């Protein structure tokens, strides 16, 4: 059983829709783009007001800002992932910057199976995934990912 919050996302540009999960899970945080370089997470409860950010993505209009230490698992959107646990995002680097520090929560990519690539080149600042889930099931890249329990 998770003690902290599960961070999810509001889908955009063909990302998998997590609203059915968000609606059923009582402890959710959603990302908020604070500036061109900074993202935070805010507590979200179904029915709380949302606004569109500069990318047209829904995010909490208010809510309490939560520290990284309050997050147990982060469900991350992606464009592609590899069997090595690497991820390509939308190119803003928000997740990599936010989770660059040690002591981060479990990072789980949410994707379609067709988004899997054999290899993704990476840079030193790219933060790897602990696991990914697709319609074909789970892939674990770290022992931390194998310990994942969402319910």
Describe the structure.
By secondary structure, the chain is mostly beta strands. It has a single domain (5-146), classed as Rossmann fold. 10% of the residues lie in helices and 32% in strands. The chain contains 3 helices and 13 strands; from the N terminus they run βαββββββββαββββα. The protein has helices at residues 19-24, 94-98, 143-146; strands at residues 5-7, 28-33, 39-44, 50-52, 58-60, 65-66, 71-76, 80-82, 87-88, 106-110, 116-117, 131-134, 137-140. The strands form 3 sheets. It has an 8-stranded mixed sheet. A 3-stranded mixed sheet has the order 9-8-11, with no helix packed on it. Strand 12 and strand 13 form a beta hairpin. The longest helix has 6 residues, at 19-24. The radius of gyration is 14 Å and the shape is globular.
Summarize the structure.
The protein is built from 3 helices and 13 strands; from the N terminus they run βαββββββββαββββα. With 151 residues, it is mainly beta. Helix 1 links the parallel strand 1 and strand 2.
What characteristics describe this protein?
3 helices, globular, eight-stranded mixed β-sheet, Rossmann fold, 151 residues, 32% strand, three-stranded mixed β-sheet, mainly beta, 10% helix
